[in-house]
Write a structure and sequence with these properties.
Helix content is 9%, strand content 46%. The longest helix has 33 residues, at 6-38. It has three helices and 40 strands.
């Protein structure tokens, strides 16, 4: 009998021990792979390498779009989450019946999260209707910050506007007439410029220009009778006016003679003394921050950029080349203030992260400059509506800085008019007009989508971004201009 044979018994025991050992190794390897996978890693069977995964969140408007990754359709539609090996470039495509494809190439690093939650799919066929006819092209259009109100100046009527509520676009517009009683010399031919909407989306700061004179108006679109002239209300003749903390009754008054900045209170009808002198350009933020340029204390050909905080001392942020165009903007992202500073001659815009604590000596560290946006002769700088992107523009060229992802994108847009200031459609897209066609493009330059005909005053989107409005030559009445309405949702 084999089990009584010592040699066979010893061989059997060896095989048994070897089996146990191999099973233990297999179980340990499986447990290790499970642990590695749980910690965000994957195993490449071909190379034997351990690769750290990344996560991609994908969403779209409209939802339930097909998701293709490197040409292969995925099991889930938008919105969805993909866990993929990192340190690799991917190509993603979203498709939906009746809509144009959306495409993007991106590099996913191990352990990172990529949020592609902003794709907008545009219908292949756009249905446009004409809402209102005008005898000629309106000279002035402006939209409130929340996108609800669209004001269109009636041709030949300087002070008469149609006001559209884009929450109910089918409703007829209200007619708003700025009272002649608040105007200085109301019979004088004049032009109006929309300067800044207040944060309440009900008040609009406007500039009235006539005979080399500027009069500044605070227009209340919900109660036009309460509108007023800042010049007469405060007995001032400023070179420019800006809102303080986006409040309709709190303003900064600037006099180019002497570069004096003062504060105005329209509710109490008071004006402060000079809070800053010798100012060349400035930008305000919140109730107490003033970012400004001054030649005081600077070397010849140079200008100091300083920050003034809450009626206290000012702090030197940067010295720049004396220039014609100063690019300033300030905003807050995820609770942290960011300052953008540049000139057209320095060929760059510098981005600073919360510089005040360092400038005030509260932190013993160097100023943090997460990005320098380099491009020749920059002319404009702006934050996206949610402040996670900063764009610097020079003609048709842009540099966009993604604060959240800490990365830059170089973008070139087709613009026959390179002086056109390109605006944000939303927090992820630009809008512009080229050859009388409105179009949109993602912030990194992909997915350029031509929409509908438009004059240079641009395209205006409803609050939900599902409808676009433009002023364009009428297709129904020759020689007239119409306000068109186009749905971005397939019918």
């Amino acid at each position: 009998m084999d089990f009584l044979d010592p040699k066979r018994k010893k061989s059997h025991r060896r095989r048994l021990l070897l089996g146990y050992l191999l099973m233990a190794v297999a179980l340990s390897l499986a447990a290790w792979l499970v642990l590695v996978s749980a910690q965000g890693f994957s195993y490449d069977r071909k190379t034997g390498d351990i690769i750290q995964n990344g996560t991609v969140f994908v969403d779209s408007q409209p939802v339930s779009a097909n998701v293709y990754l490197d040409g292969t359709i995925q099991g889930n539609r938008t919105s969805t989450r993909l866990v993929l090996p990192g340190s690799k470039q991917y190509s993603i495509k979203l498709t939906a019946d009746g809509y144009r494809d959306w495409k993007r190439t991106f590099t996913l690093t191990g352990g990172s999260i990529e949020r592609l939650v902003y794709p907008l799919l545009v219908p292949k066929t756009l249905a446009t209707s004409e809402n209102q006819l005008y005898a000629s092209a309106p000279l002035l259009t402006t939209q409130s910050i929340d996108k609800r109100w669209l004001m269109v100046q009636q041709p030949g009527q300087t002070y008469v506007f149609d006001v559209y509520d884009l929450n109910t676009p089918s409703a007829a517009p209200a007619t708003l007439t700025i009272p002649a009683s608040i105007l200085t010399d109301p019979t004088k031919p004049a032009t109006l410029t929309a300067l800044q909407w207040a944060g309440d989306n009900k008040h609009l700061l406007m500039q009235r220009s006539y005979d080399d004179t500027s009069e500044f108006l605070m227009v209340d679109i919900t109660n036009i009778a309460s509108s007023l002239s800042i010049n007469t209300t405060l007995t001032v003749a400023p070179s420019s006016v800006t809102l303080r903390d986006k409040k309709p009754d709190q303003i900064y008054i600037y006099d180019a003679t002497g570069g004096v900045v003062r504060q105005g209170d329209l509710k109490n009808r008071t004006v402060s003394g000079a809070i800053v002198n010798n100012v060349i350009a400035y930008r305000s933020y919140g109730p107490d921050i003033l970012l400004y340029a001054t030649k005081t204390g600077a070397d010849t050909g140079k200008v100091d950029v300083r920050i003034r905080e809450n009626d206290r001392a000012s702090y030197l942020l940067k010295t720049v080349t004396e220039a014609q165009t100063y690019l300033f903007d300030v905003d807050q992202f995820d609770g942290t203030p960011y300052y953008a500073v540049g000139t057209n001659l320095d060929d760059a815009v510098f981005v600073y992260t919360d510089p005040l604590p360092t400038l005030k000596g509260q932190q013993n560290k160097a100023l943090l400059i997460p990005a320098v946006l380099r491009l020749p002769n920059p002319q404009f700088v702006s934050f996206s509506p949610d402040s996670h992107l900063i764009a610097a523009q020079s003609g048709t060229n842009f540099v966009v800085y993604d604060i959240e992802g800490d990365r830059q994108f170089k973008v070139s847009l087709p613009l026959t008019d390179p002086t056109q200031k390109v605006a944000w459609m939303d927090s992820f897209r630009f809008k512009a007009v080229n050859n009388n066609q409105s179009y949109i493009t993602d912030f990194e330059g992909s997915n350029e989508q031509t929409l509908v005909p438009s004059l240079l005053n641009g395209a205006f989107f409803s609050p939900d971004s599902k409808t676009v409005f433009t002023l364009a030559p009428s297709k129904t009445v020759t020689g007239r201009t119409s306000l068109t309405q186009t749905s971005l949702v397939k019918k």
